[in-house]
Each structure stands twice: as structure tokens, then as C-alpha cells.
Amino acid sequence: MLIGKALLTDPVHTKSTAFTRAEREQYGLRGLLPYDVASMDKQKERVLESMRSKSSDIEKYIFLNSLLERNQRLFYRTLIDHIQEIMPLIYTPTVGEACKRFAHIFRKPQGFYITPEDRGNIAEILKNWPEKDVRIVVVTDGERILGLGDLGANGMGISIGKTALYVACAGLNPAHCLPVMLDVGTNNKALREDPLYLGYPHSRIHGDAYRSLIDEFIQGVQIRFPGALIHFEDFVTPHAFEFLDGYGSKVCCFNDDIQGTAAVTLAGIYASSRITGKKFTDLNVMFLGAGSAACGVAELLVAAFCTAGLSESQALQRIWIVDREGLLTTKSTNVKPRIVKFTREYPEYNFEDAVDHIKPDVLIGATGVAGTFTEAIIRKMTHANQHPVIIALSNPTSNTECTAEQAYQWSEGKVIFASGSPFEPVRYADKWFRPAQGNNAYVYPGVGLGIYASSARFVVQKMFLVAAEILAQSVTDQELSAGAIYPAITRVRAVSHTIAVAICRVAIQEGLAKTQLPEDLDSYVKSLMYDPSY
């Protein structure tokens, strides 16, 4: 049993100034704390006051991270109760800056690091992680962090941020979550030459050396944490699909950039149809960008169209993909194998001409390049649609295809807009619009909770289709009237709970659940959700 100073400084068990007089007597804390017994609400007030006094978002990030290191329950209680304000500080967009500066703002180790020097010993060294019942492993190799590229070991900030949202958005217990950095080197020369860089100071390993290390890690997780869900995050497109395809039918895993993004985007399209009145199966959807996110969304869209009654060939005819060279057609060269099925017998238009001739109902940006949705593009979309649907997925904010303000102004308030990064409400023509953030946090935490609750052996596509439907249904008429196609983030735990229950049902229907689940899935899932109060 922890007592005295050891209890006060243990981030999992401390209550700091909230220890009662009796507890101070019982645990040898008398004299170690100031007189006042502060409630958790009072502690939150102090946290918020300190956080808000910081002059920049990165300083707020550092402060919140240090709170997590000092008092885990207070951190999560404050995050959950003020998620709209704090989530952008611990994840997008601030986490991008935090990752770039990760080695310079490093305070205390969090998560688990694996390097090529650990080859042959990964299963053994995973025993060093103090928690024995890990259910979620969030892993990145840092090569494609957000839209920022290769950040090497600094990418650990992404894994830490994602695990925090599993806890806040779906109630996974922090003890069940493990952030992992597969530090296989970096090709970012500036990082390697930075004297404060903390990562493996070599160029990235590649080929068989890289793949064998990944495989050893996957097998190590099966040995050390059997049944844990592996969440792949921010791998470059070829590796993202390779690992999803290679391991998806062997272990319990998914790729959030592909499948989580796909489900959130599909949900936004479903919800937008409630505003436009257009039939889902009549929609023409155009993508700008042909990476893992665009491909993942397009593939899930095909599945959704087929579920709604179209044949696969009909579904493919609803999807158009444009890359930096223009519209992808059967004549296009260097098309990735995964994208070939989306090419069309069509003239090789540039982006503007493709919008002109195809007149898509929905335009999705997955480029990682700021400003690619120009005024001309938005106006063309508005000319073709009474309410054009524009979803600018790229983040952080500095990389978004267009801002919310630009979208509303250039469309004269007609656009239905969502983005990967958060934007403040926009006033146009005496009306306030509240652009919604198409944040993967609406989906992956609930999916993870459902996998944990059901002990599902694998993750299947149907889980993401169901998650998209539930997320779309959760948007209220009032939210739609303000232009939002996602629910308020303040309701994310309720949405995650509903998604998790649905995932359990899919696991049962597909014969994937390892254990017999109770009939009252609603209460059962709620009983598993972590409450950080004390």
C-alpha cells in the first residue's frame, strides 16, 4: 500500500489536496499538504485558471501534459468536463506543434519505445511495461505524422494523444492503453542533427529489416498482451495498407487513418443528406488526394453504396479521384494498385475542369496541402449545388484545404462544411454557422471500447459501417440547422457508448466475440467505462 510522499507523488492514486482529514491520518499525509481539503471541482478550477493563463497553445499543452504526469484522474476529469476547450490542446491542431518540438519539451517518459537494437527481444522487453492487462496498443513509426511528414521518435506525441482520447472519449481505463513508438530511425536530417533529439539517430531502416521488426512487434504483442487491439497510426500509405491487409485477418487490428477517417467521413456524408435532401445512392463524390485517407474513405463508400442497394460497379461509378496530375482515368500513369479500380474512362481533366464537368455533390480534401480548395473551386461547387458539401480533412489547421470562413464566404453561406481541424463559428449574412470537425475521435474510441467489451478476435469492415450510421444519426436537427454534420464534441462519450454497444452486436452476429456477452449490452458497456472522479 502506498503511503506518505509515495502516495502523493503517484500519478494514478494521488488525490493531492483532495485527501480528507481521515485519509491524511490513515495514509501518513499529515503535514505534507496545506490545510484546505479541496474538492475535485475546486482543483479543476485551479487547473483551468492556470491553463488559461498560458500565452500559447503549446504552453497549454505542456501544462496539461505535466498535469497528466502528476495527477491522472484530475487530468481526465478536467478533460472530460471541458473537452471542447481542451481536446484541441492535447490533440489536433496543437499536437502537431508538440510533435515537432517533442524532444525539446520532453519532461517525463510516457509510452513504450522500440528500436532496431531491440530486435530479437521485443516480447521480452514488453514485460517492462508495468501494466499487465493492456487492451489497446496505439503504435506509430513516425514517418507520416499528420500532414507534417517524417518526425521520427517525436511521433510518440501522436500515440500519447490518441490513448488520452480513448480514455476521455470512450472511457477506456488508462491502465488498458499503451502508446508505442516504433523508432526505426528518421530520414529527417534536421532531426538527426538536432543535439536534443531523443530518437534512434540513424536513417530509417527499410525493406526486410523494417518488415521483420514490425512482425516481431506484432507477435510480441500477441505473447505479452494476447487479445489486445492494435491501432496503427500515421504510417505512410504503402505501409498502412500493407500492414492492414497483412495482419487484419491474423490479429485484432485496424488503421485509424484509413478506417477511422473513412467512418467519420461517411457519417458526415450521411448527415449532409439530411440537409440537402439528396438520396445517398444518387451522390457523386469527388476526392482531391489519393493517399491512404482518400482510399480508405472511397472503399468504405463503395461498401455503403452496396449496402444501400447498388452493385459494386454502380458504386464505383459514384466515386471520382483527383491527384496532383488531375482526374485519375484509365490512361493515368503511376496509379497505385489500390486506386486502379477507381479510375474511369474519362477525359484527363485538371482539378477545376473535373469539378466543372462532373459537378460532384460532395468534395473531400485529403491532400495535406493548404489552400487547394480555392475560391474558384468553391464557387464552381456552389454553382452546381444548392448546398455543396465540402469536407476538408487535412490537418493540422495550417494544412487544411480551405478554412471555414473561406468556405462560407465563397459559397455565400450555402456550403455544408466540415474539416479535420477545428474552426470557430463563422458569421455570414447575419447567420451563425458552426462548422463541425470530422474528428476520428468520434469513431475509434467507441470501436475500441466495443472490441474490448466483446473481446472480438478481429476488426471487420461492418464495424465501421455501423459506427458511421450511428454517428450520423446522433446529429440533432438543431445542429444540422447551424450547418454542423457532426454532433457536439461534448456528447462524444454518449456516442462512443452507443457505437461500442453496436460493435458488440456485430461481434456476436459475425461470430467474433470470444466470450458470452450479457443480454443487457447497454448496461454492460457502461459498467466498463472509466470514471476518473475521486
Radius of gyration, CA atoms, in whole angstroms:
23 Å
Low-confidence stretches: none
Domains counted in the coordinates: how many? 3
Shape: globular
- Tell me the quaternary state: single chain
Record field, number of beta strands: 14
Query: Which fold name is given in CATH as the topology of the largest domain?
Result: Rossmann fold
Task: Characterize the largest beta sheet: strand count, sense, and whether it forms a barrel.
Answer: 7 strands, mixed
The average pLDDT is: 96
User: Helical segment tally?
Assistant: 23
CATH architecture of the largest domain: 3-Layer(aba) Sandwich
Structural class: alpha/beta
How far apart lie the N and C ends? 18 Å
Q: What is the CATH superfamily classification of the largest domain?
A: NAD(P)-binding Rossmann-like Domain
Task: Give the helix proportion (percent range).
Answer: 40-55%
Please indicate the percent range of residues in DSSP E strands (runs of 2 or more).
5-15%
CATH class of the largest domain: Alpha Beta
